[in-house]
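Records of this kind hold a single protein each, on a pair of labelled lines. With that in mind, the following record should read easily:
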Amino acid sequence: MRTICQAAALSAALLFGGATVASAATAPTEVYSEVTAADIADPGAVLTDSAADLVAARTANQAISWFSSRNGSTAYQGYCERAVRLAWNRTTHHASAIEHWRSSDGARHTTGTPPRGAFVFWNISAYGHVGIADGNGGVWATSVNGAIGHARQGYFAHYLGWKPGNSN
């Protein structure tokens, strides 16, 4: 039903030369957004499963974007936990990647492909190592050829597993 209403609103906006659709006096319990010129340029942008799915996807994409925009940087060498915290804009701080892995901060998974944005952990030193999953078996991390970079999950030895990515 929501998709039909959104399509009708989009059609009306297109018909009237890009005019915006005003909100109803009583907003529905689901998320409502006004149709804008940006939505008309990309109609798929207004069609989403749920507001929660949209926020989660956008947050994972932002975390990955943080890493990809710093591709090749050596500024975070030795500070992998700090890098993933900054990428997700987390309020929770861990002293090291291995502390993060051992903490109760998220369920530990040792099998399966880590989903997009997940924290991925390795036991490569007393402090461990952590990166962010791309969802396709790859990771963004520090220490990829001595800098921030993208590599296959098996690039680092002694894989521990993954935890869901989040900004808490």
